[in-house]
Amino acid sequence: MIKIRGFTCFFLLLSFVISRTCYAQEAVTLEELKLHLEILQKKIAQLEKQQMASIDSVAKAKKDSQKSKQKPTDKLAKNTNSLKVYGTIRPTFGYIDENDTTQADIRDALSHAGFKATSEIDEGWSATLHGEWGIDLSNNGDFGKARQVYVALNSPVGTIGIGKQRPAQYLFIAEYVDIFDHGNSPFAYDPESIFFVDNLVTYNYKNNGYTWMAAAQFNGEAGDNYSDLVNLGLSYDNKGLHVAATYLTQDANDSNNSDTIGDDETYAAAIAYDFDSGLYVALGYQDKEYQRINGEMDRDGHTLDASAAYWLAKEYRLKLGYFDFSDGFTNDQSRDFSGFNTTLEWIPKPWLRFHLEYLQRDFDYLDDFSSVSIGFRYDFSKQWQY
What we know:
The protein is an alpha+beta fold. Helices cover about 20% and strands about 55% of the residues.
């Protein structure tokens, strides 16, 4: 700073002397020199002040830049864990015509509650704990039947889970037609297909809209569904489009669940599309082969579920469904049926909905079923980051 001041003073004095020499017609007095020296000193002080301000500005900008680079990292480090607690209560009240009798009854449309916790292990690696239990409002509001209880390891190369979980058969096929406010939805999928599987090991991997999933059940002793199974699936999702195919094979046991009498193989496909106009359509189909050891009871069955929904207004949605189920029997053992349902929903809030539903199910060998019901659904969800 001293060098800068000295050089500056020297050059300013030199320029002053030269300028005064050019105007040699007037004599330079001592007072004039003092006056010009004061002016020079003021200019030097002003230059020094500007230089210090420039240095401070550069230092501040560098410090702010370092802070801005550090903030995202610090924020990421503070919010790598999450905990979600949720619950949904879904009571219905209906007038039911079943087995040649009519009755008014309160039923439950799969109320449940649970929690899901995820914690980061390292960059790109995390662990998930998920527990979910049903609440049966139609039977004293009983709480405790497990729907999902598992632990999963998430990594850049996929997710591995162990415990009671959703299989690919539901996640890829049934979930997209399961849009109705009813405990037996999807109606053709429901009688013999899988929703949750205990003692299950799963692996799934997502990349560029594709999801691969493999699942295998290892019972040891017979579990809730008394069968070992393998379930493979592939799906593709892009904006409003969903396309999927799955393969399922599982052991079949006798009526006492003591002996294996063969196995069941199921090939399934689903397609769904959510249009910008507010229209949603979905179709799920399963072809099932009942293979028995003695070969005498081999048969083929299927399930077909078609669903559609359309927003009539901001808070009102109309839903329509058609379903067809066949277990392959051609006599009075058969539980084959087909039918339709329609639902009108009023959704005043994202977490609250009311509905009016009509359901008709026509059996080939059994008594037909129909119901008119009203109900509501209240959802609660709270999530924390820490």
